[in-house]
Amino acid sequence: MIARRSVVLGLGKSGVAAGRMLLERGDSVVLADRKPLEELDPAVAELHAAGALLELGEHQPSLFDGTDLIVASPGVPLSMPGFEAARERGARVCCEIDLADS
After folding, report:
1. Burial of 88 from C-beta contacts in 10 A (0-12 / 13-18 / 19+)
2. pTM for this entry
3. Strand, helix or coil at 27?
4. N or C: which end of the chain has fewer CB within 10 A?
C-alpha cells in the first residue's frame, strides 16, 4: 500500500481508532481536534509518540494542504470549510465508517 498523508478530525474513540489504523498501514497522519491534549483520550499521546502529528486548538487553513485523505469523526460536518478545496485538489473526504474503503 502506498503511504499517504491523512488527517483525522475529531479525536474521540472512533477518531483514535482511525488514527491508529492509518498509522499501522504506513500513512503519515495528522490528528486534529479543537480540544487541548489534556482533555483528550490518553491514546492520542500514544499515537503522537508513535509518529502522528498533532494539530490541537483552532485549525490552520494549511491543515489540508497536500492531504490525500481526510477522515471526519461523527459531529464534524462533511461540508466543513476547507473540505471542498481539498476535494478539488484530489483529496478523499470521508467519515470514519467509510475508511475501510479507502
Report:
1. exposed
2. 0.91
3. coil
4. N
